[in-house]
Amino acid sequence: MRSSRVMVLCVPDWPIVAARADESLHLADNQPVAISARGVIAHCSPEARAQGVSVGQRVRDAQVSCPQLAVLASQPGRDWRLWNQVLSGLHDTVAQVSVIEPGLIVMKSSGLARYYGSEHHAGTQLLDAVEAEAGRVSARVAVADTLFAATVATRYATTDSTPVCVIDPGGDADFLGPLPLSTLENPRLAATLTKLGLTQLADFAALDPLHVQDRFGLEATLLHSCARGVDPRTTSPSDIPASTDRTWKGDTPLARSDALSFALRGTVEDFLRALVASHVVCTSVSISLVDDRGVTHSQVWSHPRFFDAADVVNRVRWQWESIARESAEEYQEGGIQEVTFQALSPERLFGHEPGLWGGGDADARIEHAIAHVQSRLGHQSVGHGVLRPGHSFDEREQIIPWGIADSFDEYATSSQQERTEAFVAELPKPLPATVFQPPQPVLLHDQWGQPLSLDAEGSALGGLPSQMLSGTNTRDVVAWAGPWPVLERWWDPAHSRCRYRLQLLDQQGVGWLVSQDQTGGHWQIEARYD
Fold first, then answer.
1. Which residues, listed in sequence order, are joined to residue 513 by a DSSP beta bridge?
2. Burial class (CB within 10 angstroms; exposed 0-12, middle 13-18, buried 19+) of 514
3. Among candidate residues 327, 339, 324, 249, the one with its CA nearest the CA of residue 287
4. Three-state SS at 434
């Protein structure tokens, strides 16, 4: 029997819970909701599952099964932000936890059991604390000797009526034995074991560990240990930081930006002091302005180094001036009643301290200079380019104001490369270096000197590309690839567009991207591969 047992708290489908808590989405309580990632369903609500939606299903198929389904893009930042709020609420119930992912934490049960009298009672106290912070959610708690068994128990041994499961010491293997192989969450291994005649975890656990390693590899060896109730994985618990969110509330609405900046200066300084006390700095902050009508205006701001008090106050002023300018008639007499500051990307303080020889101040000087220009000309006056998914270059290249995080989160993932590759049918890498805006007209001739044409369906060329004629320049084509159709907005006949792209290589080794809007149209050069 292990001397230290683990307790796992799980909120199933936490991204759904976080999405429902986002007031800007305006989701109805009983509306079916799903979270998508890379074109498939990653999470779905009970209402969606009741109508045939399932995890791993294609988004289009899910919408066919449930036409009223609200499909939202995955937003890990929102999930972490709201989960950190829940963690802050657990500070009085448990001191240290290991966060596996938003909605899933692990802690040692021994100290909690001694303090609350039993493991079951400790689990109940945790559920009450989560409900106090996140409302009525389907949180589950399980206690076992191993992390694997406790995590599995939250899914297979708990319900809404019995949300706490305590596996007796030494009983992990007996609990896991009757469960199906799909519990391993490794479809390929489960399919192979099924072909071998195995159906339960007990069958898998009965295999010789050396044979499992030789036949299936190290990952299967770890899962085999888990199935036998001897999960070798450990977690490193850390202290739960206190909440650093701060809210300013005024007695009367403030319409003038200078008065608003002066009034909330103390709250901003308290907000930053709380971050420093937690040994972190803020590189991304969410500022929510609530006007006298109860309307919330939220904006996420980023900083290349970290925010100080003046930076945060300036962001509030710019944000409010932008709102007031766009809705001048509505805010002639009204103003801002409440402002909330929330650190979205707190980072360790020591990683942002100045260098020993003063070399770490370059970013701060750049930010200060840009902030000075924006304070004079408005925050829309200075921008930076971002690359977004799309078919054409003009829709991929976007300029957004400096200091504002890119809000295009539909394809946001852990890296920029993954995000751009997630868009279906976009131009593959390597991307061309020179883009012509607008595209330049060009004549393409086949091997007989006739204009190069496409067939009626645009799937084949009428001849072999031989020459490119642009103005007085003539280039011989030595290699080509395509054509590839690009059909945009096919669901909207009034705005749909169909193009056919072709890649060409001339005798000088220069690559060209040309396209034709429709069969029988004119060819044009979109870009050049330098």
1. 503, 527
2. buried
3. 339
4. strand
| Residue tagged 């293997």 (tokens) | 173
Contact yes or no for 59/36 (Cβ under 8 A): yes
Contact criterion met (CB below 8 Å) for 412 and 392 = no
If DSSP codes are grouped into helix, strand and coil, which group holds residue 438? Answer: strand
Nearest CA to 34 among 80, 78, 83, 74?
A: 74
Go through 61-94 and write b for each residue having 16 or more CB atoms within 10 A of its CB, e for each that does not.
ebbeebeebbbbebbbbbbbbbbbbbbbbbeebb
Which three-class secondary structure string do you get for 156-223?
HCCCCCCCEEECCCCCHHHHHCCCEHHHHCCHHHHHHHHHCCCCEHHHHHCCCHHHHHHHHCHHHHHH
pLDDT for the residue 417: 43
Q: What DSSP element (H or E) covers 272?
A: helix 265-277
Degrees (nearest 5) of the Cα angle 217, 223, 225? Answer: 105
Interacting residues of 148 by C-beta distance below 8 A, sequence separation 6+ = 172, 176, 226, 231, 233
- Which runs of E-coded beta strand occur in 38-134? 40-44, 70-73, 96-101, 104-108
pTM recorded for the entire structure: 0.54
Instruction: Give the separation between CA 99 and CA 89, rounded to whole angstroms.
Output: 14
Q: What digits encode the pLDDT tens for the residues 425-480?
A: 567 677 777 777 778 888 888 888 888 878 766 667 778 888 888 877 888 888 88
pLDDT of residue 363: 56
Virtual torsion, Cα 203, 207, 213, 216, nearest 10 deg = -40
Q: How far apart are CA 336 and CA 315, in angstroms?
A: 14
Q: Rounded CA gap, 425 and 170, in Å?
A: 53
Distance CA 303, CA 311 (A): 9
Spell out the residues 6+ positions from residue 313 whose beta carbon is closer than 8 angstroms to its own. 261, 264, 265, 268
Q: Using an 8 Å Cβ cutoff, are 402 and 370 in contact?
A: yes
Burial (Cβ within 10 Å: 0-12, 13-18, ≥19) of residue 389: middle
Q: Who contacts 520 (Cβ-Cβ below 8 Å, separation ≥6)?
A: 453, 454
Tokens (6 digits) for 381: 């006056």
Token pair listed for 57: 């299903």
* Residue 226 DSSP one-character state: H
Q: Report the residue count for the chain.
A: 530
